[in-house]
Design brief:
The complex is a heterodimer of chains A (about 70) and B (about 160). By secondary structure, chain A is mainly α. Chain A is about 60% helix and about 5% strand. Chain A has helices at about 5-10, 15-25, 25-35, 40-50, 55-60; strands at about 1-5, 60. Chain A is globular, with a radius of gyration of 11 Å. A two-stranded antiparallel ribbon of chain B has the order 1-2. Classes of the chains: A mainly alpha (about 70), B mainly alpha (about 160). The interface of A and B includes residues 24 and 30 of A. Chain A: InterPro entries: Cro/C1-type_HTH, Lambda_DNA-bd_dom_sf. Chain A: It holds the Pfam family HTH_3. Chain A: Keywords: DNA-binding.
Chain lengths: ~70, ~160
């Protein structure tokens, strides 16, 4: 699964730490998610989308391996 | 979603406070660099206590009283409790990704521990194997602790760098 969380976060001038605090997760989680090392749960994906003001489908998309 | 069945974060510190001295004492005791204090010699109730080489024939094996030094029992108990507390307490920012790292570390530790055991089965014999079994009571949790904290440390270093 691909995502463009990093781009959207940077566009809002948020650091990983800021985003992590707003969502209530660790900074490591945001980092792992942005580097495609971790696929978030539905709840976490919805929270990220809410904070970044986007739809989940705009942030996350399937790739060839899925 | 957070991992269930974890202790609150404050128990982690208590775990470390118990783990470090009991690990040092356990290693010193098993390597015979210190001896168990004699005031811990006492009569205990044994459910099962088969005779060892050199014991008299006909010694009762079940439901009997026997004398033992409780130092190793106490240290083993402290090690089990403290490794559980350190390993199974929430980290400061426990979340679903940390839960994944925790589970993967436990899997890794289980595989490495199994490999270590298979190696010892074929290459260590006699009383040496008994010693390995004693260490093996704690190696799974200790391997897990090392691996989990290493992975956590790496993840925090990486995320700090990639702000």
């Amino acid at each position: 699964m691909k995502n463009n969380v990093r781009n959207e976060r940077v566009a809002l001038k948020l650091t990983q730490e800021d985003l992590a605090k707003k969502i209530g997760v660790s900074r490591q989680t945001i980092n792992a998610m942005e580097s495609n090392k971790y696929i978030p749960s539905t709840v976490l994906a919805l929270k990220v989308a809410q904070v970044l003001g986007k739809k989940v489908e705009e942030l996350f998309s399937l790739d060839e391996t899925d | 979603m957070k991992t269930r069945y974890l202790f609150p974060h404050r128990f982690k510190k208590l775990g470390w406070i118990l783990l470090i001295p009991s690990l040092v004492l356990g290693l010193l005791l098993t390597s015979e660099m210190i001896s168990a204090p004699s005031w811990l010699d006492m009569d205990v109730f044994a459910l099962y206590d088969p005779k060892m080489l050199g014991d008299e024939e006909g010694t009762k094996e079940v439901f009997k009283m026997r004398e033992t030094n409780l130092a190793d029992e106490i240290i083993a108990c402290l090690l089990i409790v403290s490794t559980i507390l350190v390993a199974c307490s929430e980290v400061k920012e426990e979340d679903e990704y940390i839960g994944k790292l925790r589970l993967e570390s436990l899997l890794w530790a289980t595989y490495v521990n199994a490999g270590f055991l298979i190696f010892c089965l074929f290459f260590i014999y006699g009383i040496g194997f008994y010693q390995v079994m004693v260490y093996n009571l704690f190696t799974l949790m200790l391997l897990f602790l090392v691996r989990f904290h290493l992975v956590l440390y790496k993840a925090s270093k990486l995320s700090a760098y990639e702000e």
